[in-house]
Design a protein that fits this description.
With about 650 residues, the chain is of the alpha/beta class. It contains 26 helices and 18 strands.
């Protein structure tokens, strides 16, 4: 591990201690082997004038919800030192009371809630304090001989603290440990919390940071020597073969059912992940406990172990979790029993989350966990905290409060939607509505701009000619590999050929219209249905047209293709109902905010009817304009629980058409 300190960058901070604190905090946060996704905390002690001009001693400590990798000055909470030290002197204090008093002691009520380790930071008599959950420290200390190892590596340079629950108890333990001592005279430069993490401290930012890097490097060197150069196990390629994709979808479905709502599933099929998941004995040492206690909030105590019988593996995890809860609970309400990641023998590591971001966080943690647990086992045995301590963290009142404060779930959160023909108009509006309601959208279109178009809504766009078999299959396979399955399919691709009567129509126009407006939909169904059967609250929605029921002269190819598409929907509804997959069709009419309807085209059509453009746009029974977004919102509703018991339905969105009614 190398120091990332840069004299030029540091010079820009000048004498501003908080700016220096931000700079070195970011240096720590940039290294995932030190902290991951909000882990760790840092602080700086500053004396400054308050609003009234009186000097006040403050501890600026990392605020809750901020990530060290990107933290800025507003991410630090200014807490009065005198209040912090008074709290440190108390004999006991509930953590919930501590949080209230920390906020009351802040000089800026708009600042984030101070880290729960604020009292501990204040008690350490140094200007700068750095704390991480370094992988190497976990591998060093999660062992029966952890304390002896720390002494061997660091000697008297660090204080050694047996594991204590974070919060007030830990702060009080440290306060009592160092009370009356001169740590500078003793040469103490850091503190190792066994099975937890590392603290370093100094009176200048660079020294505190570089001591951290040095000590983690010393731990790495010790472990490297003990492991005799052994490398993490690796096996296989970096992509899941297509024949196993249905298994991934089944795993995601099983986990989602236990969780109670859809989950995104991210598969790590790297050689290292496959090798770790396939190691003999991984079902033992890989489930003993998390890399750090904090990680249990994201990952639970252990991963699921998945073999050939996928559902049985998930069920076994749920049963084990309930037994773990029953052994340790004293009046708690049990959280869901679904795993947050799984070791899938021969396939890799699968991470689950409410969103892609959540799943990616779990994936990062699981990757570091796998490497560290494997190393720890190789250098004397991986021995993390007992399950009772992990339970205390997982069901800690402060962590439960964080979960309760989380944002409400969106209608389609955790779902994966595949939308065709979505580069513009109705198709884009559908993709946008689904994304707004929480779905992860993958859009397929022949338009080469589709990747950039989908980025605008946080989706992924793939250039695909939907009449070609292999590109469609590849797009489906990609979607399942990337997100674990498919829950919503919106089959929207279509064209409207020029208006020609039957005796004047070119055969090629008819053939092309039928191929795109009908056959491409059938091809999509053939390939995507096996995965939709494994979806969560699965739904297929076709986009038809008013023309299926009220055709016009010169629109034979379009009208016939939409009528046949409606029949395809009805057959699909019959076939998929036993699998609890809903199949419905929406019939828009007179949607003019699309590329097809230029101002000139609108003017021409309005004139043909003897109307103004505005009259033409509202020529339905309700005299309202139908916009693409109206169709998008309807499709999103049709894919939602509102239509949970509706299949085979044909929904017009046309403001009322007397020919249809």
């Amino acid at each position: 591990m190398e120091s990332l300190w840069n004299d030029k960058e540091a010079f820009a901070c000048g004498s501003d201690l908080l700016a220096q604190r931000v700079y070195t905090s970011r240096l720590l946060g940039q290294n995932p082997s030190l902290v991951l996704h909000g882990g760790g905390n840092t602080s700086v002690k500053i004396t400054e004038k308050d609003f009234f001009g009186d000097e006040v001693a403050l501890c600026y400590v990392k605020g809750s919800g901020w990530d060290l990798a990107t933290i800025e000055k507003p991410g630090f909470a200014p807490v009065r030192m005198n209040a912090l030290m008074k709290m440190a002197e108390l004999d006991e204090m509930y953590d919930s009371d501590m949080v209230v008093q920390l906020r009351a002691a802040m000089t800026d009520p708009g600042a984030p809630t101070a880290s729960i380790e604020a009292i501990l930071h204040a008690a350490l008599p140094f200007t700068f304090v750095d704390h991480s959950h370094a992988d190497a420290i976990a591998a060093l200390t999660c062992n029966a001989d952890g304390e002896a190892r720390v002494k061997e590596v660091f000697g008297s340079r660090v204080l050694i603290v047996p594991y204590v629950m974070p919060g007030f108890i830990l702060a009080k333990t440290i306060y009592d440990l160092i009370k009356g001592r001169d740590l500078r005279a003793e040469g103490v430069e850091g503190m190792v919390l066994l099975k937890h993490g590392l603290f370093t401290f100094a009176d200048d930012a660079r020294t505190s940071y570089e001591r951290h890097i040095e000590m983690v490097t010393m731990a790495e060197d010790f472990l490297a020597a003990r492991s005799a150069g052994g490398a993490p196990a690796s096996s296989g390629a970096g992509i899941l073969p297509a024949e196993h994709l249905l298994g991934l979808a089944k795993l995601r479905q099983a986990v989602s059912k236990v969780r109670g709502y859809p989950q995104i599933a991210r598969l790590n099929a790297s050689a290292e992940a496959v090798g770790y998941a396939s190691l003999p004995g991984v079902a033992d040492f890989g489930t003993r406990g998390p890399l750090t206690p904090d990680h249990s909030i994201r990952t639970k105590r252990a991963p699921a172990i998945i073999g050939d019988d996928i559902a049985a593996g998930v069920d076994a995890f749920a049963a084990d979790y309930k037994a773990y809860f029953d052994r340790n609970s004293s009046g708690h309400t049990m959280l869901d029993a679904a795993p947050r990641f799984a070791l899938w023998a021969g396939k890799g590591i699968v991470s689950f989350g409410d969103t892609v971001k959540d799943a990616n966080i779990v994936a990062d943690i699981s990757e570091h966990t796998a490497a560290t647990v494997q190393l720890g086992e190789a250098v004397g045995g991986w021995e993390p905290l007992p399950e009772s301590d992990i339970f205390d963290i997982e069901y800690w009142e402060l962590e439960q409060a964080k979960l309760r404060k989380g944002p409400g779930r969106k209608v389609h959160q955790g779902k994966v939607a595949l939308v065709t023909g979505c580069a513009a108009g109705i198709g884009f509006a559908i993709a946008e509505s689904l994304a707004e309601q929480g779905a992860q959208v993958v859009g397929l279109d022949i338009d080469k701009e589709i990747p950039d178009i989908m980025k605008r809504i946080g989706g992924i766009g793939i250039v695909v000619n939907l009449t070609e078999d292999q590109p469609v299959q590849d797009a489906i396979d990609f979607t399942v590999r990337e997100f674990g399955g498919i829950d919503i399919v919106v089959s929207n691709a279509g064209i409207f050929p020029k208006n020609d009567h039957l005796d004047a129509m070119a055969q090629g126009d008819w053939d092309r219209t039928i191929m795109i407006n009908l056959t491409s939909h059938q091809k999509l169904m053939n390939k995507v249905i096996p995965y939709v059967k494994q979806g969560i609250d699965a739904s297929i929605i076709f986009v038809g047209s008013r023309n299926f029921k009220a055709p016009g002269p010169g629109a034979s190819a379009y009208s016939c293709s939409k009528a046949a598409l409606t029949q395809l929907c009805r057959v699909a509804a019959l076939e998929l109902a036993p699998h609890k997959v809903r199949v419905n069709i929406v019939h828009p009419d007179a949607v003019f905010d699309t590329k097809l309807w230029t101002p000139e085209a609108l003017e021409k059509s309005a004139t043909r009817y003897g109307m103004t453009v505005e009259e033409y746009k509202t020529k339905n029974l309700m005299k309202v304009e139908i916009k693409s977004k109206d169709i998008g919102n309807m499709v999103a509703a049709m894919a939602s629980p509102l239509f949970a018991k509706v299949t085979g339905a044909q929904i017009p969105v046309d403001g009322g058409n007397d020919r249809v009614i």
